[in-house]
Write the structure tokens for this entry.
Amino acid sequence: MTFKVLVVFVLSVLVTFCFSQESKPVYNVEQSFDGGKIWSKRGSLNSVGLNRRLTYIPDGPWQIPSDAYTTTGNSLYQIRFASVEGNQSPIMTSVSFCDVIRSQLHELFTLHIDQTTHKLTSVDYIVTVGHSTSPFINRTCSVPDQLRKGNTKQQVRITIPSPVQGDKVSFVGVKTPDQKKKEEEQQNEPGFFRKYWYFIVPGVLMLLVSSFTAPEEGGQAAAQ
Amino acid sequence: MKYSLILFCTFVCVVNAIYQRDAGKNDWSKEFIGDIKHAAFGCDKKDLLVGSDNVIANINLRTGKITWRRVFESKEVIRRFEYATATCNLITLTNTLRVWDKNGLLIWDDNNVVDAALTEEGVVEVKKEFVRVRSITGKPIYNHTSSEEFTGILKGSPLTLSTKQSAVLVTSSGISKASSVNVEEGHKIVQGELVTATNQGYYAKLNPIDETKSRVVVHSNENKIEEFNINATQATLAFIRPYTSVDNKQQFNILVKHDDQLSLYNRSGLIWSRDEGLSQIKGLTFVELPTQTQAIQGNAIVSFEARLEKQLETLISLARSTVDGLVSLVKNGLKSDYVHRELNVGRDEFGFSKIMLITTSKSVYAVHTNGQVLWKKTFHSIFKTSDLSDVKLIVTNSPQQHDEKPVTPEFVLVAQRGNQALVATGNGLIGDITNLETIDFKLKDSFGVPVENGNNVLVLVSSDNQVIIRHGTHNTLTKQVYFYVHDKPTNSLQGYTIINSTPVPIWTVQFHHPIQSFAHHATKLNKHVYTNTIQHDETELSKYLNPNTFSVALEAPTSSSSDSNVEIYLIDSITGTTIYHTLYESSSGPINMLLEDNLLLITYMYNKPKRYQLSAIELYSNQIPSHAVNVKRTSFILPSAVRTISSTRTTLGITSKLYLLALTNGQVLSVNQKTIDTRRPRGVAPNPNQAEEGLLMYNPYIPLISQSLLTYNKTVHEVSRIDTSPSYLESTCHVVVSGLDMFYIRTAPSKQFDLLNDDFSFSLLVISTVALLVATFVVKWMAAKRELVRLWK
């Protein structure tokens, strides 16, 4: 009995582990070197784990088609994310191809995801070359042999920022009319002495009078 | 006490009012009724009652001016408009039935009325469950309930109502089934002719003769009794009223609505005409007037002679104006020494005279900043068709402040008719169309690309990705052109660049909720924007100034369907990068945005406490070069909902900025830059350094101070846009507020520090100077004489 319980427990843990590691493609990542005429698949964005973390899985080494680009400039490198389920239009972005070459495939995808529908809204594609990348600037560069042969490892980072919470109105330091009235009343409130002087002054006078008269009676008694 | 003082200072600092004597001097306003759909001649001979979708008004039949006007909420649409000539009462039905007297005073009203009518018995009021007949004063006469739901009135006499299943006859004794119903038609276009009829047996037909005239033929019981021409075509509404003139002759008034105009004619011609087109402004562009002088080209002697000639003319005009001033001084005394500037259409030295090119749904206008309509052209007369999509106006040639020779302003109108794009080029001064081109392609987008000298090259993009350039060539476009298109069906934005005359898509943003609002930078960033803000602790904040950004606002429902969030995206239009993305929880529209320099202003409603808020987001560049920006934010509570938002603009950007909020009560509130500064300290009073910088302590409320209302005691109903333009003077800005009405004002956010007052007495100055000169010589002579006498002694 104990053994059966143990087996069931181990099996359930294994199933959970396997399920949690199951990677399901959500978006196909496609690339184009010719301004969007021909698209080829480069990898996919997979949802991994119970928390549906998005991870980029390449389809293989990154290769440039032989007829796409040689040593001329003025070219765009375009990436698009197409939903596997086909329930939305592809999301596209572009950078200058020369910048991709210079970065040696150090890429950063910033994915903006809608909070309600959990669908992709836009992608910011940045290649780390140390300066801002406009998608089309007249540059020339040559493609290294390593890239042509597909011997360069893709280093893709993905960030999924959440929207910044909007600023709220602050009432710190702002007093309501009731608070202001109370503060004014407190400021205008007279001190303890001013409030009860008609008790204190006669009391003090009486004390003084009694202190003066008390020794005289003692003196008179002593004289007697 | 300390906080009260600071609060008082806040209010004092932001007050910006005009004097009573200045009211009407630098501003004007026009009131409109809108697209007139209903009309009735009043029982009084000088009354004409008209109604548009949500406005009713009484027009003086002799002058065409509005006597009184009532504006309903914009969501109300008038379904019934009936006038009782016997009692001089008007009833209007939206979702509320209202009964008015002849002076526009409301006698009584009732809500949730399905239909209503004026009958001999009184006012019939139909609700879903019952029908009630009341007198004009509102006193119930009788009412009946029914098991079937009433849906409307079919006929007024006998009173016949429709229910969900049948028609019923209603009398004072009860409800019975109606056997057959003849439904009357109102005024309609019958077989191409506009026909209007009265219940006295007269009817008139309007037949177009040519493009500008129509023939009116009046009949009485099938006999033609009168015919005459009127200057109106494309009439859509007409009414005829017979009357007997002073000399006992039968006369007719014909009221005709054509295009945007309402005109009254009789046999002798046009009596008056009202143009209502400016109540539906779609686009407005300020254009400079051409300079009236021309720089002389030639050798030094020629230009010297020309300069002398010009200076002599200036001296003569100065002498003339001084004499005029002296004469008025003698006549009127010192108090009213006041020189009125002549109304003219030419450019003036301060840039107060400009033209506004305005497009409406049917026409294009040129309106001078003094309120005068210079010219008007209907799209029908330009394009020879009414079947047009949204017409866009782009200014391609614009005079500049320092032109050496007169430059005529030119504009282009772009429209889509079926599968053809129509491009009309026109002269901005006189409105003549100089060229009309028809291009066989389906237009996806059209825009102007700014080039040198402030001109624009027209770029047309077709749906099959062709690009056509007009008023320039590809070579004129020295920089790469980027643009984006909003695809409404898919709710996405697609960015393009033009490579080898072909638009190439470069980025896509797909939104999953409808876009509520857009905000763009003005056409050109003010070149004098000061890029750095120096703080009290001597650190510098570098403003993030990117003229290619635009902002998008969405209203996204939350998991609980009754609530929603407002999402704001700030996107770079070249790369499609999302620069900033923020979310306001439990918020909803109406959302208005303004993007100015590095500041984004957003107005929205915060659902929980049901209040309207304004959020300010200022963007600063990060020290570390990256796409991230340093953001400072703050939020305020508004006194009421806002319809639109804009800001003043000046030539050099030195003058304080005023942010203009169009409130739903028809007023425009001006808010100072310091009020919405994101660096205002919260919870504590500003320290001496912050106070020196001019920072005020944060207060969550934006006060509604009557002196800060730009429209002072005027009301502009249903404001849809506020347009601003700088003048040549740094202190002054043109502001136009338009909606159902139109309001123009020249405002000076920091007071007119570079202009003398209008009541400055030049003649007194001249007299004082001359008197001092004379006194100097006289005293000099007297002093010399005394000295001589002294020496002789």
